[in-house]
Sequence to fold (557 residues):
Amino acid sequence: NRIFIGSGPLGGARIAGSGAFSIVTRGAFNNGVASTQANGFLGAYLKFSGFDGILVQGAASAWKYLYIHDGMAELRDAQHLMGQDTWEVEDSIKKELGFSARGMSVFSIGPGGENLVKFAGVLGDQGHSASHNGVGAVWGSKKLKAVAISRSAGRIEVAYPTEIADLARKFIDDFKKTPLFEWGTSKVISGGLSVGDLPVKNYTTNLFPECPKFDGGYTRSHFKVKNNPCLFCPSHHNQLMTVTEGPYTGYFGKEPDYEQWAAWGPQIGNKDPGAAVMLSNEVDRLGLDCNESAWIVGWVMECYEKGLLTSDDLDGLEMTWGNVEATRTLMKNIAGRRGFGAALAEGVKHAAEQVGGKALDLAVYTMKPNTPRTHDHRARWIEMLDSCVTNAGTLETQPAFMDDLTIYGLPQALERFSWKQQSDAEAKTKGTLQFADSLVVCVFPVRCNLPLLAEALNAATGWDFTFDEALKVGRRAVNLMRVYNIKAGHSPDLEQPSLRYCSTPVDGPAKGKSVRPYLEDMLNNYYELMGWDRKTGLPKPETLRELGLGYVMDNLK
Fold:
């Protein structure tokens, strides 16, 4: 299995979020494509060092870390880093090599990746995460503990510097019009509760009276915060946070993103935002994917409540709702594959199948077996569909980040519970996020604005990409991933939600709204619009030829 770690054509080009990097490999979690990104600095520092990407092939005989500096790359011994969490590794390597905080970018695997937890991720630059589909386990299988890149004096040459500067300002001006610029995702939790999109106690309810204490308006005014922006980004999305009230007073770490607030607050029945800060950072330090971790803990807690798992099953842990310290210990057991943690290290679907019986009905997952992001998709049908059909084990499209849906032939405001509009949008916007990802920039400041992104690519390279060509590039990526995954054993019958995932909300804003009767219609419509065979799941020959992928048909034979 090969790992590609790369920047893109906009890497380091002074556009907000252009310090991002991408990891592409065959994922340990669903055995198909893994394509995941993290922000921070590593992608730009890689470009400053004279490299576009890193290809890792084979496996080391002993643990190593990759050190890139002054146009050179070298593997160094990492035995002394074993057992260290991702923050400790970052500090250790910078101290060892004599670099300041921003003088080097370090991304690493924690104990979870060392022990090949199937949903282990790669984290660095103080809490930035590339964690979907088990890329950390793939690093661990190669005994690659970390990648460290110094900030060299190299410069990025672009075809039209003035145009790049103008577009960078345009992206930021548009970004400033959104709440994300000032608040990051810290206020999404209140909006999610208002529409029934906030997961509470493993989808057993949509009521969470403690939500105001998790909102950014409260946490940022009650806890101590310090801005910690990514490269070239003036937004206040990334903050460092010190808890100043409650039992975890004094705890320091990264401010949780929305999905971390949702994961370690309402999803596990925790009412203390300070505890959510602690758990969010502890899971990051262990090198585990936040989403899968939270679905596992919520499932365990519900099973414990219903008597399907006991403290004896859980190595003595009392997994009651909101038990923060038990959760912390459980996550350490998972990262170390200790006791029942070894079963949980395979993911919620496999663990639920091992327990069996009614426990299987309580787990949130798709049959592939990736889990959704930390939302309640029973009130967000497009993302339930997307989580089922995704090729990369995480979201493949995000219309919420697209300011103009009419350019895709869609109404600007989609009806939330219209199966037709939701599945239309899933198919017609497909490829946009992949194009943005292929440029390797953060989608927050660029807002998945495909026309502007095509202009930015042209300004950087001197090319003349149009909107249609940019969308075609993204669709090519989607179709190649689809073919790869089917060759790897995926099939259309796996594109289904679990019983709990597509259950009907019993309360809250989406009470009584059920997606279940419309799932087959949504899938049929999606396949037709994508030009895929409904029985095999493969792109039709004419679809591949239209995308310039005719050669793939010979490979399929």
